[in-house]
Amino acid sequence: MGKRQFKAETKQLLDLMINSIYTHREIFLRELISNASDALDKLKFRSLTEPDLMGADTDLGIHIALDREARTITITDNGIGMTQDEVVENIGTIAKSGTKEFFEKMGQEKSGENALALIGQFGVGFYSAFMVAKKVTLITRAAKSEKGVRWESAGDGSYTVEETGKETRGTAITLHLRDDIADRMDNDLLDPVEIETLVKRYSDFIRYPIKMEMPKGDDGKETEVKTLNSMVPLWQRAKQEVTDEQYRAFYHAEFHAWDDPIDTIHTRGEGAVEYTALLFIPSKVPYEFWSPHFERGLKLYSRQVFIMEKCKELLPEYLGFVKGLVDSPDFSLNLSREVLQHDRQLKTIAKNVEKKVLDALKYMVENRRDDYEKFWEEFGRALKGGVYAGFGREADKLKDLLLFPSSFGEKPSTLKEYVGRMKEGQTDIYYAAGRDRSAVEHLPQMEALREKGYEVLYFIDKIDEFMTVGLSEYEGKKLRSISAADLTLDKEAAEEQKKKEETHKGLIETVKKLLDGKVAEVRLSPLLKSAPACIVSGDGGLSLTMEQTLNETMRSDMPAPKAKRVLELNPDHAMFAILTRIHAENPDAPKLRDYAALLYDQSLLTAGLPVDDPAAFASRLTALMVDAGDKRMIIS
Known about the structure:
Blueprint: E1 2-5, H1 8-20, H2 27-46, E2 62-67, E3 72-77, H3 84-90, H4 99-108, H5 112-121, E4 133-141, E5 148-153, E6 158-164, E7 170-177, H6 181-184, H7 192-203, E8 210-216, E9 222-227, H8 244-254, E10 263-269, E11 275-281, E12 298-302, E13 305-311, E14 323-327, H9 337-340, H10 344-367, H11 369-389, H12 395-398, E15 404-406, E16 409-413, H13 415-420, E17 429-433, H14 437-441, H15 446-452, E18 456-459, H16 464-467, E19 473-474, E20 477-481, H17 491-503, H18 505-514, E21 521-524, E22 533-537, H19 544-553, E23 565-569, H20 574-585, H21 590-606, H22 614-635
Parallel strand pairs: 2-8, 12-14, 17-18, 17-20, 21-23
Antiparallel strand pairs: 1-6, 2-3, 3-7, 4-5, 4-7, 5-6, 8-9, 10-11, 11-14, 12-13, 15-16, 19-20, 22-23
């Protein structure tokens, strides 16, 4: 017998299951039945191309056996089964990646509900067995294999795995119930009636019969094998016949999800293309959703026969968070990935599915705003990514679903709501980009916008400015960054600025020369009020915040492109008067160089950007403080 140690993270998970989670322990049954159903699906699917895989055992199903004397529950299926390597890979360890993040998140969660949600996201539903079992024994035999495999663990940090005899393919999992389980649960897990109730609640829609020996007659001495579930696929039932609770139960079991969907879409298409779709919009981001490893797509069926687990052609990438399935009688059971890419019927269904999801989200924006804002917190970045990646093609579909924090208030705003609040004479939609709300609220340019009474959208997600590549205007109104060099709010002020630039042309050229290599241009600002200077992005091209984001994401051997930097000076500030005086006395004065460098560094910091040379900045600042202190001593 081969005894092995669980990895450290698996030990932590088992400890969590055994000691920390106290609510909804009965869902272990849902998870194990769902796993059994998946094994049957895989067998049925593979047998389409390997007819001999199933052999004579074609009566597929799941069986539950209770033994009150031994205090065991056994769940058996005649599905695809597992080899020894598959047992070790699938059960001996938890998710191959992300375990560190899993436990970091678990450490942040206090309630059992949230803990369960995280376990579901990280794909370790099998371990829910240890909520009720002191020992779990699994015996399995893979289809076409001659030998079985026995896996066993008491959840104590180790497990055994060895070859064993098993006459038929499939898997049997025996749970040896914990002695104190009756004190921890309201359910008697060894009562057949209680198990039947749990199966109907959580697994009634499973497409294979779930059978169990049940008492027959009033005295209970005789028994009969009874099918506990209806076996009618939920998506084939009329919407009015399905309760919200049944939809939730299906979502949890079919997709191994532990959150509740924020919306459910059950729709049928008739006519040239027939199909049924059952779609769920999750309330929580699935584990690894933002990583390249995440597999998006809907389950695909033809006349209730499983064809494909993740058909990504049914959804655009920006709706990859949607879980669900599509069943159409028009599909061949032997559809390949290559055929799907060119299938006209599939493309028609995909277009309809996309529209149904977008319509549901638009309805949520207008009629269930609180729910939509919760959804946006989880998945808003995916929709913004769709606008960016679509280079304008998806903008019309998504523009009214976008939400942004703004200077109007604490609640996020749609573009439509922003336009509805625009001041008379305002022609553009203004936004400010930065690392967070506080940073953008303290940008020097914000003073002029506040003075005008113009609302500003806060672009504080790294993707926000990139999104403007695909959405440069809304209802004919351009999206304009308040940190753009060409921004003007007042034509008269802009004309006055040009006149002043002509008057101070020599100083401006000198400052530009002193900052050679750092800025592309120096000019006077028509927007600044109390700040002496600011850094803005040059006309067109990359912005400063875009440059920052690219620096953080690109490889070290591939330097990010640079934004064109423009230093804008405030001609009405006392600092500008000092620069003018020094320049008039001596254009080559060292102090002019120091002041120019300090204004540049100060503007970088105000914009949330790092200074190029922190040591030089500190040295200049110290010298300035000493100089100012000496002058005060002389005056006093």
